[in-house]
Amino acid sequence: MSRSLRMPGFSNTPTRVRHVAHVAAIVLALACPAACAAKDAGTIKVGAISTLTGTGISTEAVRGAKAYFDALNAAGGIRGKRIVLVSEDDRAEPQSAAAAANRLVADKDIVAMVGGSSVLECAVNHKLYEEAGLMSLPGGGIDPLCFGSPNIAPVNAGPYVSLANGLTFARTVLRHERLCVVSPALPGMVEAFQQAIDQWAKTQRVPSPPMEIFQLGDPMEPVVKRVAARACQSLVFTGPNVVEWARSSRPLLPGVEQIFLTPAYTTVVTQALGASGEGIYAIAEFEPWTSRSLQLNDWRALMTANKVPLSSLSQGGYLAAQMFGKAVRGISGPITRETVAKALREMAPVSNALTASPFVVGPGRSHNPNNSGIPMQLKDGQWRVAHSKWISFEMR
């Protein structure tokens, strides 16, 4: 959406040449003139930990970051230095996440973590990053400590803010009063979801909506029946098993509006659900990637050229890389962990094409700069904007 909260434009798509020109303009703004390349040649190394294999595979964020860095390097890098992205796989295992972080931290040339996405990496490694003075800009923060650590600043809104934004959409736009939340019993996340619900209820001056908790792998029918007994008008589903829940619940919950978080906003979900998904909602954490918004031209062209899927995750990786480049460009001396951390914390808020609010890190002990979302609805097999204005919620 535009910063003025208008609907995304649906103008004719510019040609590929114009797309590439737009991308070049972005990276050239960060690149160094050829005159300084010889003076300051070398590399700037960054790391990223993502779930590339195993449960909950999440490859698109780091691929989006790499595509941006590759374009930046092609334009001359930063002060003539090439960005080198070292990508590690946590395999959705705490031990693998810890081992990957230890390898990256041990490499003193790694000056920051940029563009990763993992369901558990922040919880495992946040203390190590703080001790090492290493800043992390995830492209897709998920677990609560991604948003509750001094050295981690995700560019996405995250599931907790998005839950609150989903509740706001249900209450203020759909005009429903009887709301429910359905969540899997994911360690650490249930407590964070409950905190988000309680904070939202306090700001709205209403009782906290009930949260129905289930174990991943449990049969869905008993869970759906428990939810049906609550007589909700709208429910927000926070789990990753979107297709399973939608297929099981919709026949048993007729008339109940179902709102999902960003993981539902994909073509995979659209194709898997077919007609059975008609009418469901999802909260987009960035400018909706399925729109033809002109603000997305640069990102879309770069992802397409690099064969990176168009998705919220690739938006997050791209934006994380862009914000890192913006911060490093302002460093006049050596580019180290210390100077990068200082630059990020002191960088003025940066407006960008993908989020409603500027990106800023600041000196705080926790960071959740993206606090907005756009409700999308699945209609006629396509995700479409369901509400023209960004919905925002600030976690405290």
Describe this structure in words.
39% of the residues lie in helices and 16% in strands. By secondary structure, the protein is an alpha/beta fold. The chain folds into 2 domains: 16-157 and 289-365, Rossmann fold (3-Layer(aba) Sandwich); 159-284 and 374-392, Rossmann fold. Strands 5, 6, 7, 8, 9, 10, 11 and 12 form an 8-stranded mixed β-sheet that branches. Helix 7 links the parallel strand 5 (179-184) and strand 6 (211-214). Helix 1 (16-30) crosses helix 11 (297-305) and helix 3 (60-74) crosses helix 12.
Query: Mind summarizing the main beta sheet?
Result: 8 strands, mixed
The tally of beta strands, per DSSP, is: 12
Q: Using the CA coordinates, give the radius of gyration.
A: 21 Å
Distance between the termini: 25 Å
Low-confidence stretches: 2-22, 32-39
How confident overall, as mean pLDDT? Answer: 90
Q: What share of residues are in beta strands?
A: 15-25%
CATH homologous superfamily assignment of the largest domain: Response regulator
- The helix content, as a percent range, equals 25-40%
> What's the order of the H and E elements?
HHEHEHEHEHEHEHEHEHEHHHEEE
Tally of contiguous helical segments: 13
Helices and strands: which structural class?
alpha/beta
CATH-derived topology of the largest domain: Rossmann fold
Given the C-alpha coordinates, what overall shape results? globular
- Secondary-structure arrangement, i.e. CATH architecture of the largest domain: 3-Layer(aba) Sandwich
> What is the level 1 CATH name of the largest domain?
Alpha Beta
Total number of distinct structural domains:
2
